[in-house]
Write a structure and sequence with these properties.
Elements: H1 13-27, H2 38-48, H3 53-56, E1 57-59, H4 63-72, E2 76-79, H5 82-87, H6 90-96, E3 99-102, H7 107-116, H8 120-131, E4 136-140, H9 144-155, E5 163-166, H10 174-182, E6 188-191, H11 198-210
Parallel strand pairs: 2-3, 2-4, 4-5, 5-6
Antiparallel strand pairs: 1-6
């Protein structure tokens, strides 16, 4: 018979979260490279239970201040999945006058993708860039083609995002597309390697928000 594991006797949601972050802090002892991004790293680990993100997350210079300036200016957040959109705290974005959209199922996007033979994720970037004003924040947790199209539009001088969160998960073109973003001058937060996902993308946004507004 194995030895029984002692359980924390915590049942309320706030208490569970508080205890979770205490355990994350213990697990990260001595491992944080830059304390400036501690809140983001911890929230991603809280979402995934994966301490690899302490090393996998890459931040462009000054990105936190730039990202939060965009949020305070009422940024338009564009996600590549409905899951990422649903995971972002809407009460927090509303306090800052931000909008959160996912155009992956928009009729115009579906038609454009069909006519071009490309992906809807790619067409959704075009739609967002043509219909939304600045500042624009792209929150990408699934589709590498979103990142590839962002790179093309930025290089062509047709788009100037305030922030790109590049954390798609998977195998095909995932690592390569993230490297494209890492090499851009646009403010970015990237999860290097194959790990990521819509939940990670939303967690990064929420971590930025919770430092600006009282958490709803």
């Amino acid at each position: 018979m194995g030895q029984e594991t002692k359980m924390d006797q915590i049942t309320d949601p706030k208490g569970i979260e508080t205890r979770s972050f205490e355990l994350i802090t213990e697990g990260l002892a001595g491992k944080l490279r830059d304390p400036e991004y501690e809140s983001i790293i911890k929230r991603v680990i809280h979402t995934t239970a994966d301490f690899d993100y302490a090393d996998n997350l890459v931040f462009s210079e000054g990105v936190k201040a730039k990202a939060q300036a965009a949020l305070k200016a009422g940024a338009h957040l564009v996600t590549d999945t409905k899951m990422a959109m649903s995971g972002i705290n809407k009460k927090a974005t509303a306090q800052l006058g931000c909008t959160v959209d996912c155009f992956i199922d928009a009729p115009e996007v579906v038609e454009a993708a069909r006519n071009s033979g490309g992906t809807r994720a790619r067409a959704a970037v075009d739609h967002a860039s043509q219909t939304l004003g600045e500042p624009l924040v792209f929150v990408v947790g699934n589709a590498p083609t979103t990142l590839i199209r962002l790179k093309e539009l930025v290089d062509a001088g047709q788009l100037n995002p305030a922030l790109i969160i590049a954390v798609p998960v998977g195998f095909v073109n995932v690592v390569e597309s993230k490297e494209l973003i890492c090499n851009m001058s646009v403010p970015h937060i990237v999860a290097k390697g194959r790990k990521g996902g819509s939940n990670v993308a939303a967690a990064i946004v929420n971590a930025l928000l919770y430092e600006l507004v009282e958490r709803p």
